[in-house]
Amino acid sequence: MEADAVPSLASPEGGLSLDTYLDADGRPGYRLSHQNENGTVVLVDSSGLGLVFADGTDWSGGWMLGRYTDRQADQSWEQPWGEQRQIRDRHAERQLDLRREDGARMTLRFRLFEDGLGFRYELPDSLPSTVLADEATEFRLPGDPLCWWIPGDWDIYEHLYRTTRLSEIDATQYRNHQALAQTYIPENAVNTPMTARTEEGWYLAFHEAALTDYPGMTLALAEDQAGLLRSELVGRPDGMKADLQPGHQTPWRVILAVPEAPLLIASTTVLNLNAPSKIEDISWFEPTTYTGIWWDMHLGRKSWDMASGKHGATTEYAMEMIDFAAEANIGAILVEGWNTGWENWIGPGRPAEGPFDFVTPYPDYNLERVVQYGREKGVDLIMHHETSGMPLVYEHYMDSAFALMQRLGSHAVKTGYVGKLVPAGEYHHGQFMVRHYRKVLETAAQYQVAVNAHEPIKATGIRRTWPNAISREGLRGQEFNAWSPDGGNPPEHASIVAFTRMLGGPIDYTPGIVHIGLEPWKPDNRVNSTVAHQLALYVVFYSPIQMAPDLIEHYSGHPALDWISKVACDWEQTRVLAGEPGDFVAIARQERKSDAEGQPRWFLGAVTDEQPRSMRLPLDFLGEGQWRAVRFADGEGADWESNPLPLVVDTLTVEPGQELQLDLAAGGGTAIRFEALERP
Ligand code: NOJ
Ligand code: CA
Q1: Count of C-beta atoms within a 10 Å radius of residue 33
Q2: Is the CB–ligand 1 distance for residue 296 below 6 Å?
Q3: What is the pTM of this model?
Q4: Fold topology of 476-542+552-680
Q5: Band of the pLDDT at 680, cuts 50, 70, 90?
Q6: How far is the CA of 468 from the centre of ligand 1 (A)?
Q7: N or C: which end of the chain has fewer CB within 10 A?
């Protein structure tokens, strides 16, 4: 079958066009393009597809078309919480049913949205269980686009983003970073989401959706062909990639393709490629800000373990934290280091049976008393389960750990997977761990527990199916500013993360450090932004749980506390107002619930990189009438490097017809809360 045997498939409004074909060797392929007045702009050029099995069977050739079926879909659904309440799933679908002379069959399913493409492989029920050796999916990029990428590490995503041409990607130079407890970069590949700007000025992002019972996908640079990326799945001890069951469907391979960068962040395509929720009643979880006993440990002022003599998780400190949270309208606290085992939690001293049982508190931490006190004050407890990279130990204990949480009325846990995995030879992003992370979500749901995973598998929209996957790390978070020997996260970090990592889903970044210099505990480290930048991150980075991580004494009496105690973390709608990866981004979000007068508030966050930047933003997202804008902006002379602290808070009266000028300092930002003054 030649390319012209099956017509092109158009996206719902005609902006994108998909060609599917079988080449002369019977290898299936696709091509994604855009038509404009000057002709065709190729976004992803002819790229082959295929699977290779452990027994040598090569499914990247020898196919014939059985039939093709095109259909249209247009549905809306509601998120329990999120960046927006309503989501529209409008796409054109193509199903290619393929067969080979040896009797093999396979279906390729493509979904073309107005902002991108998803496709996956579907194996027949008749195929017996089999072992996958390789997935041979190609992504052929025309020209030499500018890319924002992290190395294709099989064990961690906590790398700095690099900005280079595609041809200049050199991931293996970032092997063995000294601040990473586990890292494995086998070849010159990148992790997804990776974002690129083409020579024509289009923005492409490569990712996957609905990663289920399959390894994570990295994208390897072909050595033999310029511009070609090949899927490289995370491997396992026997060198193979995955066990496949009859009827197995791979995750969706996703290419977002938009003419303007803000449309990447606004995209709901990754979510739409996931199945509807399997949790009938999720009303037991509510989005909230939280604070906790955490930054203390990263600063080294306190410790997780008791033997150190500076244990952080004491009953007394937790109660102090609850008092602070109650006063500041913060809904929950996280207490790390509450359970026995932290003396040998990491490294060679780690006991073979695992350091933790996830239910036994240290003697100076009265768990029941803390929970009871929190209940009296309306502050929930977020539990902490650090697995120390021992997933099977965690699976052994997790039912009793979640049962304890359910009994205490604690509905959220932060999990962690620091260190090289036991069993050795498995990686954090392989099929074994993808199964583990899912098993945790499924088990947690039975106990009404929501999960915020650190050292997680990447976000691929599973939160639609398992809404108790509330947030995760999976990037270089704030903690690197406290201790990384490489100087922490540079000012451009946030404006890259928003266009890369955040395309996967919610981020537990822990914004809001106001004591930028970290003295006296970490005089050689610091946060590389202004205070206003830190506040803007609460809106820029979406998460239904947002931490206020700094120490109580740093927030007390600080003007930032007014922002933190009122900022929302659940939204009716989101407008990505402006932005460019690596430079800046401005986002406005409307709070989902209404204030006492029945008026939902709007919040705006804008951040810039190391360049100062002014922008004029139209306020037409505001509803009719007058609004009080409480603005938290960089003060006179502010500059991330030499003068990060000046923060001015002022109040303006604004209307939707107006444009608002924002002046961001180098490494700075602006955060604005809009409260309705009157309605027409
Ligand atoms: C790494 C996590 O990212 C961090 O937030 C946590 O404090 C430590 N692990 C200990 O679990
Ligand atoms: Ca981490």
Answers
A1: 18
A2: no
A3: 0.98
A4: TIM Barrel (3.20.20)
A5: low
A6: 20
A7: C
